[in-house]
From TrEMBL:
GO terms for biological process: DNA-templated transcription initiation. Residues 119-169 form the RNA polymerase sigma factor 70 region 4 type domain. Keywords: Sigma factor, Transcription, Transcription regulation. It comes from Hoylesella timonensis CRIS 5C-B1. Pfam families: Sigma70_r2, Sigma70_r4_2. InterPro entries: RNA_pol_sigma-70-like, RNA_pol_sigma-70_dom, RNA_pol_sigma70_r2, RNA_pol_sigma70_r4_t2, RNA_pol_sigma_r2, RNA_pol_sigma_r3/r4-like, WH-like_DNA-bd_sf. This is Sigma-70 region 2. Residues 22-91 form the RNA polymerase sigma-70 region domain. SUPFAM superfamilies: Sigma2 domain of RNA polymerase sigma factors, Sigma3 and sigma4 domains of RNA polymerase sigma factors. Belongs to the sigma-70 factor family. ECF subfamily. One of its GO terms (molecular function) is sigma factor activity. The keyword Transferase does not apply.
Length: 183
């Protein structure tokens, strides 16, 4: 199957091979999304399984909006399943610990262009659960702090505070990596 539309049509017609192709095509992307929220690979495998089961169960209701819309829909399911996992396993703890970051690092944007993507992903995984979750929702899912607050059941200023702290902690990790790597 070449396009998402063809793949979707085959799946809607009950083609099991098309379901397998969909899984194989997007499993890597889904893994990356889940790993942004959950650093434990075993837990991520469970989340991916639940995500694809949920997607295949709901695919009849999916509204195709052009190439890429199926992938985007699947990745939203993965992100939501990751959040569900965090809530159900009481891993979604917001922290009020202050991060000791010098003022000059707080105000400067950090250049990540020379940073290998796997290194950046590992840094994001090292953030405390609350920081990491808010950071991912804000940066990758492009949710507003109001939407994040509603999704997580927190106050809007708590979301903004967690994001600010996550960003500063990540900036410190990136700057440390650059100094050690002479970038």
């Amino acid at each position: 199957m070449e396009t998402e539309k063809q793949l979707l049509t085959a799946i809607l017609n009950g083609n099991q091979q098309a379901m397998r192709q969909l899984y194989e095509r997007y499993c890597g992307y889904a893994m990356t999304v889940a790993l942004r929220y959950i650093p434990d690979r075993d837990a991520v495998q469970d989340v991916l399984q639940d995500s694809f089961v949920k997607a295949f169960s709901a695919i009849q209701r999916f509204k195709y909006r052009g190439e890429g819309s199926l992938k985007a829909w699947l990745m939203r399911i993965v992100a939501n399943q990751s959040l569900t996992y965090l809530r159900e396993n009481q891993r979604l703890q917001l922290t009020n610990d202050l991060i000791d970051v010098p003022d000059d690092e707080q105000e400067n944007e950090v250049d990540t262009r020379q940073l290998p993507i796997d290194v950046l992903l590992k840094m994001i995984q090292q953030l405390p659960d609350g920081y990491r979750t808010v950071f991912n929702l804000f940066v990758f899912e492009q949710k507003s702090h109001q939407e994040i607050a509603h999704t997580l059941g927190i106050k809007e200023n708590s979301s903004a505070s967690q994001f600010f702290r996550a960003k500063n902690m990540l900036a410190r990790m990136i700057n440390d990596y650059k100094r050690k790597s002479n970038l």
